[in-house]
Design a protein that fits this description.
Length: 67
């Protein structure tokens, strides 16, 4: 019988502004295509967040957020 089992997960879509944040991160940290150590990736993403670059991208879409 169709529709009685669990549905396969759907890919999550970013909220408006989130896609821009993801794109900014991808400029610095490449997509994972093979096994690697993530320490450097995490450091780069942390710096983007701390510097405000990710927030700037999101605020470019939503407007000023509470800081």
């Amino acid at each position: 019988m169709r529709g009685t089992g669990p549905r396969p997960p759907r890919p999550a879509l970013p909220v408006p502004g989130g896609g821009g944040a993801r794109a900014r991160i991808r400029e610095t940290v490449p997509t994972v295509d093979e096994d690697r150590v993530f320490h450097t990736d995490i450091e780069h993403i942390t710096e983007l967040v701390r510097s405000g670059e990710v927030l700037d991208v999101v605020e470019g879409w939503w407007g000023a957020l509470h800081r």
